[in-house]
Amino acid sequence: MGRLFWKIFLGLWLTLALTSGVVGLIAEQQQEKRLVQLADRAQNPRAMMDALFHALHFSGIEAAKSILDEQDKESRPILVIDSLGKELLNRPIPKKVLQRARNSTNRPKGSAPWARKVRTPEGEPYIVFLAPRAPSQVNPPTLWRFWPRFLNSILGLSMVGATLLFSLILAWYMSRPIRHLREATNKLASGELSTRVMNQIGNRKGEISDLGRDFDHMAEHLQGVINAQKQLLSDVSHELRSPLARLQLAIELVRQKPERTESLLKRIYLESNRLNELVGQFLTLSRLEGDLSTESRTQVDIGSLLEDIIESLNFQATQEEKEVRLELRAESQLSGDAELLRRAFENVIGNAVKYTPPKSVVSVALAKSDSTITVSVSDQGPGIDESKLKTIFEPFSRITNQDRFRDDPAQKSDERGFGLGLTIADRAIRRHHGTIRAFNLEEGGLSIVITLPAATQNQSISRGYK
User: Fold this and answer.
1) What domains are there in the chain, each with its CATH number?
2) Which range is most confident: 25-29, 279-283, 287-291, 356-360?
């Protein structure tokens, strides 16, 4: 908070100094104008004294009062004092001023021109005295005499204190959430992924609270990504360990029982194929999780792509008395990665063929609107429990017979997948700004609907997820 405090403090004082300088300059210019005006209006005090002297001596008190009434109040006052010490206009006269006026008249003639004795036609004695300043300001009380000096000092100290206090409060208010953000950033960098700051910042409004919410969103996303990577690594390690263990066992049995070599070699071949398939799917998933900025884009005819995939899958499906039917309702093209799209559709349709019962049909429909392309894949299998529908697109998510509405005893253990096919499909579709969702059909079976934007030639593949 220290550096922020001094920046605020110096900034306030610099602003205050500049403002004071401008105001002072303007005030000085106005004061100069006023002095010029006063100088123009000021009367000659000696001439005034002569006029008062002659008015009192020849015309009397009333004539002197009229002259005093015309006296400029901003100039040095001329007092007319009688023998009792009272001023002609009843203005208060401090004792020191009165004493000075009397002492001045006792001096030799001409040595004190600011004081003159005069008598009225009635013979009353008066003193015409040029006072040093206004009578109300002559010999003021001691406290009043020093008050302006004290006032300036008090005002200066008050301004410094108020500025210090304001700067301290403002710096604390601004630096407190920033300090929380800094501490949270250090904790997050050290591996504490559960770190959040909004519970410390509170219900503030403004940019700092927005930054705090963005930080919490980033930390939550980062925690999810890292946890997902850890889980993925753990799952991959587990998936690799099982076929490797079976391979090692088969090789050991070949050594111990040579007469079973042929059957064991089939098992080794099967497990090596499973390993190759797992590594291939994992590499595809890693590619989808990475940056596709270097991927090539082409115009992909979705109808032709689906026809090729279904032709290949029907070759195997007919061996199991199953069929895949395609309904093309419109010609549809988009700009994207043909290989990724092929993987996505192949995994979804192949999954439907795997779980649909014999002597049943997998329906694939392609439709197009003004801005979207929709591909639906429906099987006649057992369907999936509603609670599991949201997890089937997660890595290594497998659906067991207990998760289905009816058991599927025909499903062989060797035909179990790795739980990556639908994950790859989900990532590939989302890379193309599309969506994929699954739901159970009322008449039975599972339907997966894929929606893609009908892209233009200039549309690129997304580098991130929505």
Assistant:
1) 2-41+141-175 (no CATH), 45-137 (3.30.450.160), 207-285 (1.10.287.130), 294-453 (3.30.565.10)
2) 356-360
